[in-house]
Amino acid sequence: MIVVICLCLGLLLSACSGNSGAATAEISEATSADTAGMTTTDTSAVTTAEPAITAVTLPAATETLPADTTPAASTTETTPADAPEETTLPTTTAEPTEITEEPSEETTEAPAETSAAESTAETYTRTPDGEKETFSEGEDTPIRVTAFTPYRGVRAACFPQEGDRVAVISPSTLPTRAETDALIRGLQSWGYAPIEGQYVCAAMRTFEDCRADLVWALTDPSIKAIFCVRGGYGATEVMDSIPLDMIRNAGKLILGYSDVSCFHAAWTAAGLPSVHASMSRIFTGLPGECAWLTRQMLHGQTPVYECSGSGYDVPGTAEGILIGGNLATLSATLETEYDCTALQQPYVLFIEEVEEDLEHIHRFLTMLKHRGVLDNAAGIIFGEWIDIPLESETTDGSSRGGAYQGVADMIRRAFFPDSDIPIAFGFPAGHGDVNYPLLMGEKVRLQIGEDGFTLEWTD
User: Fold this and answer.
1) Residue 150: strand, helix, or coil
2) Hey, which of 55, 93, 222, 319 has its CA 20 to 30 A from 438?
3) Considering the entire predicted model, what is its pTM?
4) CATH for 345
């Protein structure tokens, strides 16, 4: 019985096993067929999807680039600045907005500052080019030379002779090559042998370089005189480092004006003469008479000047050592080792200025007044006032009885309302296109009348 049951069970299992294999085979065939169909479909879908993405993405970029990036790059050549805005879609739209807003805030502040500065200077009359309107006094004063007086002082050896070696330096602002060459060629035409300092036109020169050129010019025994190429800021700093004994022992004439006025002060304090005259401009547009008179002065021939009056002059006669130069530069030398106003002998003060308004001129003259320089002068000669702003922001005379009519008017009313010091206005020397030479540090006689004044050098 057991055997029969086992056989029946075996037959049943065999039947089931056969059906399962067939089903498996059918499922396998169906799966293969389906898989084949699905694979074909998926492949075609992927294949068509990739070109679709490529076709959509590239044209979109191509359309954007010509419209935005390409013109920007060709016009401003700032492709890196534009590229982030085009390529970064979601976030860059916010970032450029922030960047754009920040400059716009700065831009609104800048005009506010500019207009504030402009409103501060609204009192100035402006020329069409936007600059302050200026005026000048003194350079048009009629002048003539009536005679020459040979120099007979104790410093005759200071005047160079033709053939002498003379130093060409620039202790102030850096000159151009053209300015330096003009001075060198001009001195050669006058018969001198100009020797250029090592650092005259050195673009990267230092204070030490400028000082080295001056020390060389002073201490080289073959150099007989010193010519400055130009003025400008810087000479005072160099002068501070030069002891008076070095200048005194050198015994050489120096020529220049403007910022070189500190050298005139030092030379006067050392007991030496110096020439207040144009530098390279002697040979680049200075009136022929000014240039010729400068050459005569270098030869020791001092002129007798006769000038027309200004209407502000104070008549009288004064004698003393001629000192001074540029007002601002002279003010910086007060109470220093080379203060020429501290002479223990009478002096005649000469002053000129450029581009300073009435307020600044008033301030500098106040400094001189407080130190007794104006009151102690035997006489005063005011030279040219060049490119002076037409109106001053604060010192225009309105708080002192009415607006000033010019520099001479301001000086007479503010500093010498009842002076008995002989004062002449308008000697044509300074920063104008006319610059007559003056021998500083030597005795002069100033005679002022009702219609004019004369200036001559005395023994």
Assistant:
1) strand
2) 222
3) 0.72
4) 3.50.30.60
